[in-house]
C-alpha cells in the first residue's frame, strides 16, 4: 500500500471540499481498501464520510429513497423493501457474505471496480488501470468476462448485483457536488468501455452519491433476481437476470428485464421487454423472449457458454416472476 493522507469529514461541506481537491471517499471500504493493498488504487488522500447524514430509508406513494450510506444488510432486511421491491432484497442477499453486507454501503456498491483478474494484477496489461496499456483478457483467461457491451479496449464485466436490479427498476442516483444536486438514471450512470474503459461512470469529479430513488410501480412488487454462479455463496455471477413484471387480468402490461455477469455495464434487454408487452404468460412466451437475451453478444475464447446460459437464465426468471415455473 502506498502512503496516503487520511481524514474524517465532520460534515458534507468538508467532504465536498476534500473531494474537490482529489480525495477519494470511503464508507464501508470493502472494495477501495482491498485495491489499495494491491496497489491497484493509489490515492494521495482518503476521506471517511461515515458521519454524513445519508442513512435514511423512506417510502411514499411514488418512490423509495435510500441514503447512500445505508448498509446492504440494512436495506435487504427493511420490511417495506422486502414487500414492495423483492428484487432489491434478493440481489443484495445474493451479493456477498453476511460480513461484507454489514459493512458495505449502497453508494459504495455502485462504485465497485471490475473483478477482472488482469485489472487487479498490476503486472498485467489493463486499459482500465492504465489507459493505452492494452487488454490482456481479450487473448487470455476470459471465462468470467463480458459478451455484451465490450470493445477492443476492455471486456470486464460490471460486478454489482444490486445495480442490475436497480436498472431493471429504472432507479436513479441523486448526486451532489459544490454546484448543487443532479439526478442521474442508473441506466445512464454507468459507461460502456469504448476506447476509454478507465472512465467507468458519469459521476462528476468530487461529487458524492447522496441517495438512490426507485419508482413505486406494480412491476416492482412482482419482481425477482436470479443469480447463476459456480458456487452458491460469495461468488460473482456467471449470469444473472432481474425481472420486474406488471401482470394483471392475465396479461403482461409491461416488463423490465436487465442482466448481469454478461455485460460491461448492467445490461437492459429492451427486445425481451417488447416481446412480453401485451402478451399472455406461457412457457412458449418465456422461451421466445428469453431467446432474445443474447442479441448482439460477442463471446470470447472461453465464455461462449454464456450465450446459451443467459437465454436460459432469463427464460427461467420470467417464469418464476410470473408465478408459472
Automatic annotation (TrEMBL):
Keywords: Oxidoreductase. Transmembrane segments: none annotated. Residues 1-219 form the FAD-binding PCMH-type domain. InterPro entries: CO_DH_flav_C, CO_DH_flav_C_dom_sf, Diverse_Substr_Oxidored, FAD-bd_PCMH, FAD-bd_PCMH-like_sf, FAD-bd_PCMH_sub1, FAD-bd_PCMH_sub2, Mopterin_DH_FAD-bd. GO terms for molecular function: FAD binding; oxidoreductase activity. This is FAD-binding molybdopterin dehydrogenase.
Amino acid at each position: 500500500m502506498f502512503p496516503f493522507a487520511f481524514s474524517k469529514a465532520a460534515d458534507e461541506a468538508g467532504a465536498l471540499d476534500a473531494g474537490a481537491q482529489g480525495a477519494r471517499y470511503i464508507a464501508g471500504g470493502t472494495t477501495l481498501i482491498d485495491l489499495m493493498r494491491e496497489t491497484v488504487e493509489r490515492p494521495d488522500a482518503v476521506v471517511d464520510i461515515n458521519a454524513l447524514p445519508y442513512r435514511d430509508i423512506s417510502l411514499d406513494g411514488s418512490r423509495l429513497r435510500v441514503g447512500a450510506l445505508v448498509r446492504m444488510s440494512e436495506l435487504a432486511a427493511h420490511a417495506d423493501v422486502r414487500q414492495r421491491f423483492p428484487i432489491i432484497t434478493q440481489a443484495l442477499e445474493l451479493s456477498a457474505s453476511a460480513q461484507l453486507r454489514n459493512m458495505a454501503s449502497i453508494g459504495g456498491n455502485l462504485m465497485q471496480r471490475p473483478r477482472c483478474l488482469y485489472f487487479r494484477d498490476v503486472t498485467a496489461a489493463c486499459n482500465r488501470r492504465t489507459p493505452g496499456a492494452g487488454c490482456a483478457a481479450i487473448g487470455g483467461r476470459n471465462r468470467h468476462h463480458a459478451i455484451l457491451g465490450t470493445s477492443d479496449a476492455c471486456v470486464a464485466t460490471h460486478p454489482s448485483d444490486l445495480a442490475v436490479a436497480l436498472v431493471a427498476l429504472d432507479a436513479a442516483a441523486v448526486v451532489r457536488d459544490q454546484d448543487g444536486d443532479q439526478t442521474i438514471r442508473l441506466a445512464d450512470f454507468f459507461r460502456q468501455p469504448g476506447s476509454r474503459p478507465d472512465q467507468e461512470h458519469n459521476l462528476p469529479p468530487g461529487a458524492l452519491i447522496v441517495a438512490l430513488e426507485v419508482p413505486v410501480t406494480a412491476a416492482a412488487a412482482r419482481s425477482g433476481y436470479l443469480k447463476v454462479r459456480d458456487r452458491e455463496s460469495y461468488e460473482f455471477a456467471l449470469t444473472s437476470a432481474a425481472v420486474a413484471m406488471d401482470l394483471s387480468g392475465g396479461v403482461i402490461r409491461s416488463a423490465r428485464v436487465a442482466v448481469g455477469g454478461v455485460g460491461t455495464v448492467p445490461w437492459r434487454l429492451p427486445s425481451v421487454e417488447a416481446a412480453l408487452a401485451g402478451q399472455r404468460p406461457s412457457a412458449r412466451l418465456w422461451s421466445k423472449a428469453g431467446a432474445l437475451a443474447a442479441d448482439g453478444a460477442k463471446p470470447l475464447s472461453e465464455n461462449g457458454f454464456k450465450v446459451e446460459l443467459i437465454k436460459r437464465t432469463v427464460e427461467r426468471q420470467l417464469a418464476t416472476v410470473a408465478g408459472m415455473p
